[in-house]
C-alpha cells in the first residue's frame, strides 16, 4: 500500500501563491493519472486537477488559469502550484488517483484570508 504525504499548505492572503507537494512512498511511474482534491469545511471532497503521464491535464473550472498541476515520476511526487488564491480556495488539499487507488493521506491545510 503506497502512502501519500501532502505538504506545502499554509496561511496566505488573497492573491498570494502556494506550492503543494504530494510525495508517494512508492513508484507512481506506472500510475497514468494522479490528481489533487480538496475538502472545505462542511463540504464534500471535490476534484481540483489531474495530470496524466503524457502531460495531459484537467482542472476544475473554479481553478482553471490559476492552478497548475505537475508531476516528477523520478521523485514520486505530484505538485500543485496555486496562484491568485481566493478565500474560497480555503480547504484541506489531498492527492490520490481518480480511482482512489490508495488511502487518503492527512492532507495539507490551505487557508486564504481576505
Features:
globular; six-stranded mixed β-sheet; 114 residues; four-stranded antiparallel β-sheet; mainly beta; single chain; 0% helix; 10 strands
Percentage beta strand: over 45%
What value does the average pLDDT take? 96
Order of helices and strands: EEEEEEEEEE
Helix content: under 10%
Distance between the termini: 39 Å
**Order of strands across the biggest sheet?**
2-10-9-4-5-6
Assembly type of the chains comes to single chain
Structural class: mainly beta
Number of strands: 10
Radius of gyration: 13 Å
Return residue spans where pLDDT drops below 50 for at least 5 consecutive residues.
none
**What is the global morphology?**
globular
**Main sheet overview:** 6 strands, mixed
> What is the tally of helical segments?
0
Structure description:
The chain contains no helices and 10 strands. The protein has a 6-stranded mixed β-sheet with strand order 2-10-9-4-5-6, with no helix packed on it. Strands 1-3-8-7 form a 4-stranded antiparallel β-sheet, with no helix packed on it. By secondary structure, the protein is mainly beta. It has strands spanning 4-7, 10-13, 18-24, 33-39, 46-52, 57-59, 67-72, 77-82, 91-96, 108-113. The mean pLDDT is 96. The chain is globular and about 40 Å long.
Would you spell out the secondary-structure blueprint of this structure?
Layout: E1 4-7, E2 10-13, E3 18-24, E4 33-39, E5 46-52, E6 57-59, E7 67-72, E8 77-82, E9 91-96, E10 108-113
Parallel strand pairs: 2-10
Antiparallel strand pairs: 1-3, 3-8, 4-5, 4-9, 5-6, 7-8, 9-10
